[in-house]
């Protein structure tokens, strides 16, 4: 499964209808949450039956496609199920009780819309009759069959409306092995430092745009609530935040792709970013670095290119000596690792080497016997184990 996204082009009247569709989907989702709160022992099928009752009770809710109503109920059940799972897990302190949310999207399954023959426009044919929208950036959609499109989601953002197509397709690319291994130690001073001492600078997208964001926020605060000028100021602020998030994602995706393509085995820190952002002094910088997004893309491209991507435990990786294994305690301000065994190197490079040793042990226990203690790879054995990893 992967997602293709295209921007919608239409009239102002059509986008007003899209807003009504989005509000209706949010109404159904919140109604399902309220129904679960008021009735004990409610299950997913009960929420599905509720969708039919809501369509009968509210005429405007019946205009929304039946599968779109079911998708809204599924969203409500996902939040409820997540709450149940967190209650069963004692390690999770915040259980995440389901809340009412403002909807920003409406999701269709296999009906309620129709694509043109050239796949460059989409027509919503449910009761709202939003009409036909031209799609910008949907050229790749013509390479897939209609049966492969499992869901279509219309998303409202600060710069317009987008259609996201969830396509069922097993993506894979064959590339030549590089006989290289790499371990990554992420940080705030540098985005990451590998076991060879190579460093990638932290782009700090939010920090660089912070001055402009503050200026736009002040303009919003100075406008009268409910006025058109305030709406325009809010839209400009939202566009700036959207640009920062896109810059962050673009950096993470391109860097992860480059790292995975250049190595046969990639080891990264299995950090719990959710716990790290509890530090109020570093929360903004950690969120701006987007480590979790980078790790997710590493694992994704590992499956695409048939490479081994291993998360290694980060405990004491900065304190342990990569040469002798001795624990050398140091504060965050100490950037050089000096050990009694004679090791003298950058703190982050030492941590990356420790992570590499841990990652090699994990890879060997998982059945990747083509990797030896020196970090060299036997490509014949490695290719066989990669097949087992991806198909297991």
Structural overview:
The chain has helices spanning 12-38, 44-57, 59-62, 66-88, 205-222, 228-261, 273-276, 283-289, 291-305, 347-365, 379-391, and strands at 2-9, 105-108, 113-115, 121-124, 131-136, 149-157, 160-167, 181-186, 190-194, 199-201, 265-269, 308-312, 336-338, 344-346. With 392 residues, the chain is an alpha+beta fold. Residues 369-392 have low confidence and may be disordered. The longest helix has 34 residues, at 228-261. It contains eleven helices and 14 strands. It is globular, with a radius of gyration of 25 Å. Helix 1 (12-38) packs across helix 2 (44-57), helix 1 (12-38) crosses helix 4 and helix 2 (44-57) runs antiparallel to helix 4. Strands 2-6-7-1-5-4-3 form a seven-stranded antiparallel sheet. Strands 10-9-8-11-12 form a five-stranded mixed sheet. It starts with a strand and ends with a helix.
